[in-house]
Design a protein that fits this description.
- By secondary structure, this protein is an alpha/beta fold.
- The chain is built from ten helices and eight strands.
- It folds into two domains: 2-209, Spore Coat Polysaccharide Biosynthesis Protein SpsA, Chain A (Alpha-Beta Complex), CATH 3.90.550; 226-296.
- It is 50% helix and 17% strand.
- Strands 7-5-6-4-1-2-3-8 form an eight-stranded mixed β-sheet, with helices on both faces.
- α9 (226-255) runs antiparallel to α10 (264-297).
- It binds uridine-5'-diphosphate (UDP) and magnesium ion (MG).
């Protein structure tokens, strides 16, 4: 019999915690495993922690970690993975968008020894706004083009991993964590189960389009240096164009020596254009420097207030 750890990040989820526990317990009863839960309260402002504590009193296999403030889902995932002791570890959202019904199948697939992880990817996004789906499709297209790390479109964080793979994930102590990239970067064999999108049972998501956009940009910076190359290319192209312009001006002067200087308006436009390009490139570099700054400060990824 294997030990299974269930790691669940929770942020303002007082309604969904009991529903999640009930649904998951129902599935676990039919599985040949000894399960432990690690519910990570990511600085919730509602009664999430109280709800979790109730479960802890009812079942000592329900453990919890409570952060001193909201550190974000990625930090909660890291803390949960670190605390988990199982042979297999599964990551789940608490809003039942990751259906517990998949657990037995994931477990069976891992047991065959053919895979190191079994993940889930949703093949549609019903219930989500068209605009959001469009943006996320574009994100997967762009990042897979410019990053060597493959990011599987629609893959959720819902995945069951072997101890060996989790140890590999934990060995990456980066401050800015993009799990979708990290899980792929560490390698190992992953099998993806496909399913149709499920909407959350209660509560509401706190991912606005703006937040998702920022998350996408930071994911790109975490797993690709293509934006830096882009600024080099813009520089090379504007250098070539300026040489061509120079040749044009000299040749014109030789052919028609009497031609006077004209076109200061176009000159101003060109100066503004070059200035803009320089600021853009500086911004791209600044973005990466900022990430280096955050990493070298070596701040902890999360701070625990309570753990049991
Ligand atoms: N979550 C978290 N910290 C945060 C935001 C979210 O731990 O700052 C948790 C949340 O409680 C849930 C999971 O991450 O279990 C996914 O969040 P959500 O359902 O809001 O995102 P979506 O499913 O829309 O991607
Ligand atoms: Mg959700």
């Amino acid at each position: 019999m294997k030990n299974l750890s269930i790691v669940v990040p929770c942020f303002n989820e007082q309604e969904t915690v009991p529903l999640f526990y009930a649904a998951t317990q129902k599935v676990l009863q039919k599985m040949p495993v000894k399960a432990e839960y690690w519910l990570v309260d990511d600085g919730s402002k509602d009664n999430t922690l109280q709800e979790i504590k109730k479960l802890h009193q009812e079942n000592p296999a329900v453990h919890y970690i409570s952060f001193s403030r909201n550190f974000g889902k990625e930090s909660a995932i890291y803390a949960g993975l670190k605390a988990a002791t199982g042979d297999y570890i599964v990551l789940m959202d608490v809003d039942l968008q990751d259906p517990p019904e998949f657990l037995p199948k994931m477990y069976r697939l891992l047991q065959t020894g053919k895979y190191d992880a079994v993940g889930c990817r949703r093949v549609d996004r019903t219930g989500e706004s068209k605009f959001k789906s469009f943006l996320s499709d574009q994100f997967y297209k762009v990042i897979n083009k410019i990053s060597k790390t493959e990011i599987v479109p629609g893959a959720r964080d819902y995945r069951m991993m072997t101890r060996q793979m989790v140890n590999a994930v934990l060995s990456m102590p980066e401050y800015s964590r993009f799990s979708k990239g990290i899980f792929s970067w560490v390698g190992f064999k992953t099998k993806y189960l496909e399913y149709h999108n499920v909407e959350r049972v209660a509560g509401k998501t706190d991912w606005t389009t703006k937040k998702l956009f920022k998350y996408a940009l930071s994911g790109i910076a975490d797993f690709s240096q293509a934006p830096l190359d882009l600024s080099v290319w813009i520089g090379i192209i504007s250098f070539i164009l300026s040489i061509a312009g120079l040749i044009f001006v000299i040749v014109r002067k030789i052919i028609t020596p009497s031609s006077s200087i004209f076109g200061w308006a176009s000159l101003v436009s060109i100066i503004l254009l070059i200035g803009g390009i320089q600021l853009l490139c500086l911004g791209i570099i600044g973005h990466y420097v900022g990430r280096i700054y955050l990493q070298v400060k070596n701040r902890p990824i999360y701070i625990v207030k309570e753990k049991k």
